[in-house]
Give the backbone structure.
Amino acid sequence: MGRVQDKVVFITGAARGQGRAHALRLAEEGADIIAVDICAQIDSVRYPLASRDDLDETARQVEKLDRRIVALTADVRDPAALQAAVAHGVAELGRLDAVVAQAGIAPIGRPEAQAFLDAVTVDFNGVVNAVEAALPYLPDGSSIVATGSTAALMPSTHNGTPDSGKLGYSFAKRTVAAFVNDLAIVLAPRRIRANAVHPTNTNTPMLNSEPMYREFRPDLDNPTREDALPAFHVMTAMGLPYVEPRDIADAVLFLVSDESRYVTGVQLRVDAGAIVNRRMQQPQF
Protein backbone atom coordinates (compact mmCIF):
# COMPACT_ATOMS: atom_id res chain seq x y z
CA MET A 1 0.00 0.00 0.00
CA GLY A 2 1.31 3.42 -0.97
CA ARG A 3 1.17 6.54 1.15
CA VAL A 4 -1.71 7.93 -0.96
CA GLN A 5 -3.15 4.62 -2.12
CA ASP A 6 -6.26 5.02 -4.30
CA LYS A 7 -6.58 8.74 -3.67
CA VAL A 8 -7.47 10.88 -6.69
CA VAL A 9 -5.48 14.11 -7.00
CA PHE A 10 -6.23 17.06 -9.28
CA ILE A 11 -3.01 18.74 -10.49
CA THR A 12 -2.77 21.91 -12.57
CA GLY A 13 0.31 22.65 -14.67
CA ALA A 14 0.92 18.91 -14.90
CA ALA A 15 2.50 18.69 -18.36
CA ARG A 16 6.12 19.07 -17.24
CA GLY A 17 8.44 20.42 -14.53
CA GLN A 18 7.11 20.41 -10.99
CA GLY A 19 3.60 19.46 -12.08
CA ARG A 20 4.80 16.29 -13.78
CA ALA A 21 7.03 15.49 -10.81
CA HIS A 22 4.03 15.76 -8.47
CA ALA A 23 1.92 13.51 -10.71
CA LEU A 24 4.62 10.85 -10.88
CA ARG A 25 5.54 10.94 -7.19
CA LEU A 26 1.91 10.65 -6.14
CA ALA A 27 1.30 7.88 -8.67
CA GLU A 28 4.32 6.00 -7.30
CA GLU A 29 2.56 6.03 -3.94
CA GLY A 30 -0.77 4.79 -5.31
CA ALA A 31 -2.70 7.87 -6.45
CA ASP A 32 -4.72 8.35 -9.62
CA ILE A 33 -4.41 11.73 -11.30
CA ILE A 34 -6.57 14.37 -12.95
CA ALA A 35 -3.99 16.41 -14.86
CA VAL A 36 -4.53 19.69 -16.68
CA ASP A 37 -2.27 22.15 -18.48
CA ILE A 38 -2.83 25.04 -20.88
CA CYS A 39 -0.64 23.43 -23.59
CA ALA A 40 -0.38 26.80 -25.33
CA GLN A 41 1.77 29.92 -25.25
CA ILE A 42 1.00 33.13 -23.32
CA ASP A 43 2.34 36.15 -25.17
CA SER A 44 4.09 37.83 -22.23
CA VAL A 45 6.10 34.70 -21.36
CA ARG A 46 9.47 34.68 -23.11
CA TYR A 47 10.20 30.97 -22.80
CA PRO A 48 8.22 28.09 -24.37
CA LEU A 49 5.35 26.79 -22.26
CA ALA A 50 4.33 23.14 -22.20
CA SER A 51 2.74 21.42 -25.18
CA ARG A 52 0.09 18.75 -25.56
CA ASP A 53 2.93 16.33 -26.26
CA ASP A 54 4.35 17.15 -22.82
CA LEU A 55 0.99 16.46 -21.17
CA ASP A 56 0.69 13.19 -23.08
CA GLU A 57 4.14 12.23 -21.83
CA THR A 58 3.06 12.86 -18.24
CA ALA A 59 0.06 10.59 -18.87
CA ARG A 60 2.28 7.91 -20.39
CA GLN A 61 4.61 7.94 -17.40
CA VAL A 62 1.76 7.77 -14.89
CA GLU A 63 0.20 4.84 -16.75
CA LYS A 64 3.60 3.13 -16.79
CA LEU A 65 3.32 3.15 -12.98
CA ASP A 66 0.04 1.24 -13.36
CA ARG A 67 -2.09 4.17 -12.19
CA ARG A 68 -5.00 5.86 -13.93
CA ILE A 69 -4.86 9.40 -15.28
CA VAL A 70 -7.26 11.77 -17.01
CA ALA A 71 -5.16 14.36 -18.87
CA LEU A 72 -7.01 17.40 -20.23
CA THR A 73 -6.14 20.74 -21.79
CA ALA A 74 -7.46 23.62 -19.69
CA ASP A 75 -6.43 27.19 -18.89
CA VAL A 76 -6.39 27.90 -15.15
CA ARG A 77 -7.53 31.46 -15.90
CA ASP A 78 -10.85 30.01 -17.12
CA PRO A 79 -13.00 28.86 -14.16
CA ALA A 80 -15.52 27.10 -16.41
CA ALA A 81 -12.78 25.11 -18.14
CA LEU A 82 -11.39 23.93 -14.80
CA GLN A 83 -14.83 23.05 -13.49
CA ALA A 84 -15.49 20.98 -16.61
CA ALA A 85 -12.10 19.26 -16.30
CA VAL A 86 -12.67 18.32 -12.66
CA ALA A 87 -16.19 17.09 -13.38
CA HIS A 88 -14.89 14.94 -16.23
CA GLY A 89 -12.05 13.57 -14.12
CA VAL A 90 -14.29 12.71 -11.20
CA ALA A 91 -16.76 11.01 -13.54
CA GLU A 92 -13.90 8.86 -14.89
CA LEU A 93 -12.04 8.16 -11.65
CA GLY A 94 -14.91 8.16 -9.18
CA ARG A 95 -13.80 10.64 -6.54
CA LEU A 96 -11.47 13.50 -5.61
CA ASP A 97 -9.28 13.64 -2.53
CA ALA A 98 -6.77 16.44 -3.07
CA VAL A 99 -5.79 19.43 -5.19
CA VAL A 100 -2.27 20.50 -6.13
CA ALA A 101 -2.53 23.99 -7.66
CA GLN A 102 0.82 24.04 -9.39
CA ALA A 103 0.33 25.94 -12.67
CA GLY A 104 2.54 29.01 -12.88
CA ILE A 105 4.38 31.34 -15.22
CA ALA A 106 7.21 33.86 -14.80
CA PRO A 107 6.90 36.58 -17.46
CA ILE A 108 10.01 38.34 -16.17
CA GLY A 109 11.87 40.92 -18.22
CA ARG A 110 8.67 42.44 -19.62
CA PRO A 111 7.82 46.10 -18.92
CA GLU A 112 4.20 46.08 -20.12
CA ALA A 113 1.31 45.98 -17.66
CA GLN A 114 -0.08 42.87 -19.34
CA ALA A 115 2.86 40.86 -18.02
CA PHE A 116 1.88 41.84 -14.47
CA LEU A 117 -1.72 40.85 -15.13
CA ASP A 118 -0.76 37.56 -16.76
CA ALA A 119 1.39 36.59 -13.80
CA VAL A 120 -1.39 37.41 -11.34
CA THR A 121 -4.19 35.71 -13.27
CA VAL A 122 -2.21 32.50 -13.75
CA ASP A 123 -0.19 32.31 -10.52
CA PHE A 124 -2.88 33.54 -8.12
CA ASN A 125 -6.28 33.48 -9.83
CA GLY A 126 -5.39 30.06 -11.21
CA VAL A 127 -4.96 28.75 -7.66
CA VAL A 128 -8.32 30.16 -6.60
CA ASN A 129 -10.01 28.75 -9.69
CA ALA A 130 -8.53 25.29 -9.08
CA VAL A 131 -9.73 25.27 -5.48
CA GLU A 132 -13.18 26.52 -6.48
CA ALA A 133 -13.51 23.81 -9.14
CA ALA A 134 -12.45 21.06 -6.75
CA LEU A 135 -14.17 22.05 -3.52
CA PRO A 136 -17.63 20.65 -4.33
CA TYR A 137 -16.07 17.19 -4.68
CA LEU A 138 -13.62 17.22 -1.78
CA PRO A 139 -14.61 15.14 1.25
CA ASP A 140 -13.93 16.10 4.84
CA GLY A 141 -10.30 15.51 5.72
CA SER A 142 -8.96 16.15 2.22
CA SER A 143 -5.99 18.29 1.20
CA ILE A 144 -5.29 21.42 -0.83
CA VAL A 145 -1.70 22.29 -1.75
CA ALA A 146 -0.71 25.47 -3.58
CA THR A 147 2.68 26.25 -5.07
CA GLY A 148 4.16 29.51 -3.90
CA SER A 149 7.80 30.55 -4.17
CA THR A 150 10.56 31.92 -2.00
CA ALA A 151 9.62 35.17 -3.80
CA ALA A 152 6.45 35.10 -1.67
CA LEU A 153 8.54 35.44 1.47
CA MET A 154 10.84 38.23 0.30
CA PRO A 155 10.19 41.91 -0.43
CA SER A 156 9.63 42.81 -4.07
CA THR A 157 12.73 44.26 -5.69
CA HIS A 158 12.88 46.96 -8.33
CA ASN A 159 16.26 48.02 -9.65
CA GLY A 160 15.04 50.90 -11.79
CA THR A 161 14.45 48.80 -14.88
CA PRO A 162 10.72 48.28 -15.50
CA ASP A 163 9.84 44.62 -15.00
CA SER A 164 6.11 44.26 -14.64
CA GLY A 165 6.23 40.49 -15.00
CA LYS A 166 8.63 40.10 -12.09
CA LEU A 167 6.52 42.34 -9.88
CA GLY A 168 3.39 40.42 -10.87
CA TYR A 169 5.04 37.11 -10.07
CA SER A 170 6.12 38.27 -6.60
CA PHE A 171 2.72 39.81 -5.89
CA ALA A 172 0.89 36.65 -6.99
CA LYS A 173 3.03 34.34 -4.89
CA ARG A 174 2.69 36.54 -1.79
CA THR A 175 -1.05 36.53 -2.29
CA VAL A 176 -1.09 32.74 -2.63
CA ALA A 177 0.59 32.55 0.79
CA ALA A 178 -2.06 34.81 2.33
CA PHE A 179 -4.88 32.93 0.58
CA VAL A 180 -3.72 29.57 1.92
CA ASN A 181 -3.45 30.95 5.44
CA ASP A 182 -7.04 32.21 5.49
CA LEU A 183 -8.43 29.29 3.47
CA ALA A 184 -7.08 26.97 6.16
CA ILE A 185 -9.24 28.81 8.71
CA VAL A 186 -12.35 28.63 6.55
CA LEU A 187 -11.97 24.91 5.85
CA ALA A 188 -10.83 23.85 9.32
CA PRO A 189 -14.32 22.82 10.49
CA ARG A 190 -14.28 20.16 7.76
CA ARG A 191 -10.66 19.23 8.54
CA ILE A 192 -9.69 20.07 4.97
CA ARG A 193 -6.07 21.18 5.09
CA ALA A 194 -4.75 24.06 2.99
CA ASN A 195 -0.99 24.49 2.73
CA ALA A 196 1.57 26.16 0.48
CA VAL A 197 4.94 24.87 -0.68
CA HIS A 198 7.56 27.53 -1.43
CA PRO A 199 10.43 26.29 -3.62
CA THR A 200 13.72 28.02 -4.28
CA ASN A 201 15.25 27.77 -7.78
CA THR A 202 14.03 24.48 -9.20
CA ASN A 203 15.58 22.63 -12.12
CA THR A 204 12.71 23.09 -14.58
CA PRO A 205 12.26 24.75 -18.00
CA MET A 206 11.21 27.96 -16.22
CA LEU A 207 14.63 28.27 -14.57
CA ASN A 208 16.55 26.98 -17.57
CA SER A 209 15.45 29.78 -19.85
CA GLU A 210 16.91 32.91 -21.41
CA PRO A 211 14.89 35.35 -19.23
CA MET A 212 16.19 33.68 -16.07
CA TYR A 213 19.75 33.71 -17.33
CA ARG A 214 19.41 37.46 -17.87
CA GLU A 215 17.89 37.88 -14.41
CA PHE A 216 20.91 36.25 -12.77
CA ARG A 217 23.56 37.70 -15.11
CA PRO A 218 22.38 41.22 -16.01
CA ASP A 219 26.00 42.15 -16.68
CA LEU A 220 26.02 40.06 -19.87
CA ASP A 221 24.22 40.78 -23.13
CA ASN A 222 23.45 37.17 -24.00
CA PRO A 223 24.12 34.97 -20.98
CA THR A 224 23.99 31.19 -21.32
CA ARG A 225 23.12 28.57 -18.74
CA GLU A 226 26.82 28.09 -18.09
CA ASP A 227 27.13 31.83 -17.40
CA ALA A 228 24.16 31.87 -15.04
CA LEU A 229 24.83 28.64 -13.18
CA PRO A 230 27.38 30.07 -10.71
CA ALA A 231 24.99 32.91 -9.90
CA PHE A 232 22.14 30.52 -9.11
CA HIS A 233 23.97 29.62 -5.89
CA VAL A 234 23.22 33.01 -4.33
CA MET A 235 19.65 31.87 -3.69
CA THR A 236 20.54 29.23 -1.07
CA ALA A 237 22.52 28.83 2.15
CA MET A 238 23.52 25.27 1.24
CA GLY A 239 25.55 26.28 -1.80
CA LEU A 240 23.15 24.67 -4.28
CA PRO A 241 22.22 26.27 -7.60
CA TYR A 242 18.75 24.70 -7.46
CA VAL A 243 16.71 21.83 -6.08
CA GLU A 244 15.13 19.13 -8.22
CA PRO A 245 11.38 18.90 -8.97
CA ARG A 246 11.25 15.63 -7.04
CA ASP A 247 12.43 17.44 -3.91
CA ILE A 248 9.30 19.58 -4.10
CA ALA A 249 7.17 16.55 -4.99
CA ASP A 250 8.28 14.79 -1.79
CA ALA A 251 6.92 17.73 0.22
CA VAL A 252 3.68 17.70 -1.78
CA LEU A 253 3.33 13.96 -1.16
CA PHE A 254 3.54 14.53 2.59
CA LEU A 255 0.90 17.28 2.46
CA VAL A 256 -1.47 15.17 0.34
CA SER A 257 -1.01 12.06 2.49
CA ASP A 258 -2.81 11.38 5.76
CA GLU A 259 0.54 11.83 7.50
CA SER A 260 -0.24 15.56 7.44
CA ARG A 261 -3.84 15.22 8.63
CA TYR A 262 -3.38 17.93 11.28
CA VAL A 263 -1.02 20.16 9.28
CA THR A 264 -2.77 23.21 7.85
CA GLY A 265 -2.05 26.84 7.08
CA VAL A 266 1.64 25.99 6.69
CA GLN A 267 4.09 27.88 4.48
CA LEU A 268 6.48 24.99 3.82
CA ARG A 269 9.81 26.14 2.41
CA VAL A 270 11.82 23.74 0.26
CA ASP A 271 14.53 26.29 -0.33
CA ALA A 272 17.92 24.94 0.81
CA GLY A 273 18.07 27.77 3.33
CA ALA A 274 17.26 30.62 0.93
CA ILE A 275 15.04 32.50 3.36
CA VAL A 276 17.18 32.04 6.46
CA ASN A 277 20.20 33.06 4.43
CA ARG A 278 18.45 36.23 3.29
CA ARG A 279 17.44 37.08 6.85
CA MET A 280 21.04 36.77 8.01
CA GLN A 281 22.05 39.30 5.37
CA GLN A 282 19.50 41.87 6.50
CA PRO A 283 19.67 44.13 9.58
CA GLN A 284 18.04 42.55 12.62
CA PHE A 285 15.82 44.74 14.80
Remarks:
- Residues 164-187 form the longest helix (24 residues).
- The radius of gyration is 18 Å.
- The chain has nine helices and seven strands.
- The chain has a mean pLDDT of 94.
